Fold this sequence. Notes:
This protein is mainly beta.
Amino acid sequence: MAGKLGFNYMLNDKHSVGMTYTVTSRPNSQTSDYFTAMLIDKQTDDQITGRGKVDGDDIQHIVSGYYAGQTGKWSLDANADVLWQKQNSDNLTFEDATHGDDRTVTTRNDVKNRLYAAKFVAGHPLWKGNMEIGAEGSYVHRTDVFGNVENIIDASDTKIEENSTAAFVQLMQRLNKLTLIAGLRYEYLDSRYYESGVKMGDESRTYSDLFPSLMMMYPMKNVRTRLSYSRNINRPAFSQLSGNVKYINRYTYESGNPYLKPSYRDNLSLALNYKWLTGMIDYARVHDYIITSYSSYKDDPTIALLRKDNTRGYDNLSLMVSAAPTFGKYHPQLMVATQIQNLEVQYRGETKKMNSPMTIIRFNNAVNLPFDSWLNADFSWRSAGDARTYTLLSRGSLISASTKPSGMIVSP
Length: 412
């Protein structure tokens, strides 16, 4: 269920303002059944038949406002958002075990979020291009309360407060055939983590980062060339930072990680385009990559705890060639791509290398039929290989379909 109110007002031909208010409510009620087997030395030690029921709600209020204007040669844009969110979830799990005791697990999770954010951008012509400068800031307040009636899992009461500020500048210049776009962004983040109202020093952190970007585009006769570099960040979601433990079954729990660090990515890319032929080389260096890890819960070897952790950085190289010629009414498209990485992860106390290359081939075929209808036959194939922390098996598929133009009536 959702509702929305808003207005837009033109102050004059150069200035306008607007505001919207949106409220949503997403009730959630579902049931599930599952079966789990516990193996010790490859022998079945216990089997569990489980039934679960979840009841919850997610209520969200958002107020957004904007201003857009023109003053002389300056273009001005500003916007602000305020969010209030309340989420609650009641989970009831029944477990029937063949060897162990039957169990009922009752948990409740209450989450409240508040967000205040604002952003301002100003643009101005500069020499043979333009310049943009801006700033933004936000404040986040999140509380997360978890309880378990049977005291199988520890109760928790956590709070996260974050203040974030940023300033950025971007320049675009056209120098004869060369188009140059350069940007620089500075971010400062102050994150404070609390347990039962007490600030935790190790889990509370501050970050100060610079994120440069550069793009150059230059046509070499009939070949369009683009070279770009950028550095960005992937911050953990608040749910990934929570210390709450989620009950999946008696042998598997899941939790966040208050010590989780953000992941940084440096990306260098070269793209070439000649008529209907495109090629791309992409290299990325990822720092503090975030993965899902397994460990024992409270040193109990029978209970696996899933949570997010940082691993060492890795390199990733991607190569891609795409051809999309046209032969009358026949429009084929062939894409061949290869990905190679050198990620290493810890698996059962040993270092496992995830560096098997993976190749992807896609061959799409489209034929333009009478009455502007289309006949499609698409083929895709992926070799076995490693993608991040997953080892994938080879897979192929063939899909054919025809589409009819809009407004055309087709008899059954």
